[in-house]
């Protein structure tokens, strides 16, 4: 097992839909990703413990919103999209076109999709809540089966 660089802390959560690797830097969440196996030696810190606690509550249907400091790494456009994704209510979906309109560029659906795909903080920044304009499930890097599970999980409460 590799040791992660000193600058990042990392923990793993065994969730109902697979291992989740959560990384932090300087007291902020910088990454939440689905992984097949633990790649790094865990390096704990308070914010990661809190992230694990909140994610467990989410999976146990005890939490609908996350209250965690995050650090977004991306272009200004990507950050604008990600900040809009955070506003999508629990259990609801919207289309790439809806997000494009909300950020003031109704013709940017494809660019919104690309930004959505670059989201490094899954679930907390709920890119799984974005669907095609016809309601179809499209474009989830962690697998459409996970996107479907997350949406069904949220609608069942």
Shape estimate: globular
Record field, number of beta strands: 5
Number of contiguous helices: 5
Provide the residue-averaged pLDDT. 92
C-alpha Rg (nearest Å):
15 Å
Catalogue the unreliable spans: none
- Strand proportion: 15-25%
Largest sheet report: 3 strands, antiparallel
* Quaternary assembly: single chain
**How far apart are the first and last residues' alpha carbons, in Å?**
38 Å
Describe the fold and architecture.
The structure is a single chain. The protein is an alpha+beta fold. It has helices spanning about 45-60, 75-85, 95-100, 110-115, 145-155; strands at about 10-15, 20-25, 30-35, 95, 130. The strands form two sheets. The protein has a three-stranded antiparallel beta sheet, with helices on one face. The N and C termini lie far apart (about 40 Å). The model has no long low-confidence stretch (mean pLDDT about 90).
